[in-house]
């Protein structure tokens, strides 16, 4: 190992605290974390010079690949002008243009954009806007939200109170918003909507819930239910936005327009942290008038100009490179490749795919789940690294959602890595204690 690599790992283990990580395992002597130093297109390099396909788009953020010349140039051009100026009391050209451009995808419906910093704050904003809107339109009794079991909407306290993944959120239950969790539309239908402000959902597919797609038509049915009951439809497209599902936005696949649309991860092409909450003019209008009706909420880096430059450039790439048209045959290629993998390997219990997002669930040959402590998914993803594929599992579901620019040849590299890793570990090494 190079001396630089050793030094970085030492400093990390001494001072960094990683998200969703058992730090004891991370800092163990035997654990050598990858130090990622460079990216190009769908590939990443570590500090030892090894190359890996970015199989989960750098935690679901990257859209057009790393170091894209167009996006990089746009950020540089803005950097030469100003890295950050305040959006509190001022505006700037790129924020104005980006807001108009996002709204143009929803002509006449979503016409206002509130910028923030990440997926959690995009959701947080939607929740606060929904509640405050109720207070200012004579519906103050609508104080509750509905979210779906096993859903994930971020980690700030408000967003976390929507979260339905018990292993993450149970310990904070009751400390945020008042939330009712349901499993299905049928359960939702049985609720009395009178106290409900909004219903929040990840459209088409739940990400953190091991990549589980909703039944076709579910989203349109949910929209109809919201229309009947007057409950706000809040779509969390933090993962599904910007082409992942094959359409620019997942909601377009069922011709649904929400009352709030939360965007983050892919908004800047995955280059900078930035988020947007889109809403209807009708909702915005309830915040006009008296001073106390204003929305007193914001973050220091709101509408950061570098983020806006990246987002504009990413949308340019969609147009100039015909990203979505080029994606359709690759989605089919991925589906076919995953089907033949599944046919070849009994350890693949189920493949779940929505557009360019796939989850590959591993189970024991008899169909039962691996014991939780065996951490089979993590062990398997470590084996994938040796074959040049970088990704993370969710429990024992291996996530495969590379950047949209990934070619069919690169997809074949990923599929071959999975094939090889399963063939080498037919029972999957189930020794515990790997981070
Ligand atoms: C990642 C994610 C979030 C949280 O976004 P952050 O930027 O990590 O705060 C919210 N909702 C969904 C569906 C996500 O996938």
Structural class: alpha/beta
Q: What is the rounded Rg?
A: 22 Å
Number of discrete domains: 2
Query: Biggest β-sheet, characterized?
Result: 7 strands, mixed
So, CATH architecture of the largest domain? 3-Layer(aba) Sandwich
- Shape descriptor reads globular
Number of strands: 17
CATH topology (level 3) name of the largest domain: Aspartate Aminotransferase, domain 2
Distance between the termini: 20 Å
Ligands (ions, cofactors included)? pyridoxal-5'-phosphate
- Mean residue pLDDT: 96
Low-pLDDT sequence parts: 430-435
CATH homologous superfamily identity of the largest domain: Type I PLP-dependent aspartate aminotransferase-like (Major domain)
Q: Percent range for helical residues? A: 25-40%
Put simply, the count of helices is: 15
**What is the CATH C-level name of the largest domain?**
Alpha Beta
| Proportion of strand residues | 15-25%
The largest beta-sheet arranges its strands as 4-12-11-10-7-5-6
Please describe the topology of this protein.
Blueprint: H1 3-15, H2 23-26, E1 36-40, E2 43-46, E3 51-54, H3 57-60, H4 69-79, H5 93-103, E4 110-116, H6 119-135, E5 144-148, H7 157-162, H8 166-169, E6 179-182, H9 185-189, E7 196-201, E8 205-206, E9 212-213, H10 218-229, E10 232-236, E11 260-263, E12 275-280, H11 281-284, H12 305-320, H13 323-344, E13 348-354, E14 357-362, H14 376-386, E15 389-390, E16 393-394, E17 397-400, H15 408-424
Helix pairs in contact: 4-12, 5-12, 13-15, 14-15
This protein binds pyridoxal-5'-phosphate.
């Amino acid at each position: 190992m190079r001396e630089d690599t050793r030094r970085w790992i030492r400093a990390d283990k001494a001072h960094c605290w990683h998200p969703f990580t058992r730090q004891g395992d991370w800092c163990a002597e035997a654990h050598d974390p990858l130090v990622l130093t460079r990216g190009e297109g769908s590939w990443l390099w570590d500090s030892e010079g090894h190359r890996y396909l970015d199989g989960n788009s750098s935690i679901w953020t990257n859209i057009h690949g790393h170091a894209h010349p167009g996006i990089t140039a746009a950020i540089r051009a803005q950097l030469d002008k100003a890295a950050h100026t305040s959006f509190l009391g001022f505006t700037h050209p790129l924020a104005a243009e980006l807001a108009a451009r996002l709204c143009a995808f929803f002509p006449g419906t979503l016409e206002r954009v509130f910028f923030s910093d990440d997926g959690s704050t995009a959701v947080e904003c939607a929740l606060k806007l929904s509640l405050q809107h109720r207070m200012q339109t004579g519906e103050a009794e609508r104080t509750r939200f509905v979210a779906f079991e096993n859903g994930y909407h971020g980690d700030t306290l408000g967003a976390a109170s929507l979260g339905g993944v018990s292993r993450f959120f149970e310990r904070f239950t009751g400390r945020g918003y008042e939330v009712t969790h349901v499993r299905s539309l049928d359960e939702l239908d049985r609720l009395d909507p009178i106290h409900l402000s909004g219903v929040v959902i990840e459209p088409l597919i739940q990400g953190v819930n091991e990549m589980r797609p909703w039944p076709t038509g579910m989203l349109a049915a949910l929209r109809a239910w919201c229309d009947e009951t007057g409950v706000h439809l809040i779509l969390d497209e933090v993962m599904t936005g910007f082409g992942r599902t094959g359409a620019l936005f997942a909601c377009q696949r069922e011709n649904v327009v929400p009352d709030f649309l939360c965007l983050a991860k892919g908004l800047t092409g995955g280059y900078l942290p930035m988020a947007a909450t889109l809403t209807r003019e009708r909702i915005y209008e309830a915040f006009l008038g008296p001073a106390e009706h204003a929305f007193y909420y914001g973050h220091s880096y709101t509408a950061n100009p570098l983020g806006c430059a990246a987002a504009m450039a990413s949308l340019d790439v969609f147009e100039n490179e015909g990203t979505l048209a080029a994606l359709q045959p690759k989605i089919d290629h991925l589906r076919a490749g995953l089907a033949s993998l599944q046919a070849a390997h009994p350890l693949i219990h189920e493949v779940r795919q929505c557009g360019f997002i796939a989850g590959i669930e591993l189970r024991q040959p008899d169909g039962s789940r691996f014991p939780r402590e065996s951490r089979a998914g993590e062990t398997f993803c470590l084996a994938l690294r040796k074959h040049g594929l970088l990704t993370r599992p969710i429990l024992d579901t291996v996530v495969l959602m590379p950047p949209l620019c990934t070619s069919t040849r690169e997809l074949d590299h990923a599929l071959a890595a999975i094939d090889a890793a399963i063939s080498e570990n037919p029972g999957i090494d189930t020794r515990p204690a790997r981070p």
